Amino acid sequence: MGKVFNLNSFLYSMQFWTHLSAGIFAALVLFSFVHNPFLFGLIVVVSSLLPDIDSPTSKLGRNNFSKTLAAFFKHRGVIHSVFFMLLVYFFLLMFWHFAALPFLVGYSVHLLLDLLTPRGLRLFWPFKFRIKGFVRSGGLLEVFVFVIFLILDCALISIHLLGL
Ligand SMILES: [Zn+2]
């Protein structure tokens, strides 16, 4: 209460935008190669944001569902793992075939970006080792990554609009 500025939520907000710009990039790259590009793209973008529902401080996680979830799963634990991603992928293959590939694309993009941070990921959960990078969450390098994706997104949107 009365908190004007919450550093933690600011850091996660930054991450949200980085994930969003990267997800849109992946969707735009594949736009011309799929049958239903808008639905495909939408699933890619949503999936590229989805893993952070395990984090109660993230933009996507500020709800009671995520708080309950966070009580069971540590942020960047099982939900941020290849194991969980493949589990959902095979589930989608069986029940909603169309969504399986765009889900895999979006989710992979999210995990790849998180691997770049010093906090890293236990990508091969339940194995304990972490893969880490050096792009600090909310730091200058992350802003740089975000801006690069933003420029690429604008370039790709222009190319699609001009029909090049
Ligand atoms: Zn994440």
Describe this structure in words.
This protein has one domain. The protein is globular, with a radius of gyration of 16 Å. 62% of the residues lie in helices and 0% in strands. It is built from six helices and no strands. It is mainly α. It has helices at 7-30, 37-49, 64-72, 82-95, 97-115, 140-162. Residues 1-5 have low confidence and may be disordered. Bound molecules: zinc ion. Zinc ion binds next to helix 5.
What composes the largest sheet?
none
Tell me the total number of β-strands.
0
**SSE string, helices as H and strands as E:** HHHHHH
Oligomer: single chain
Itemize the secondary structure elements and their pairings.
Blueprint: H1 7-30, H2 37-49, H3 64-72, H4 82-95, H5 97-115, H6 140-162
Bound molecules: zinc ion (ZN).
Concise overview:
The protein is an all-alpha fold.
Features:
164 residues; mainly alpha; 6 helices; 62% helix; globular; disordered N terminus; binds zinc ion
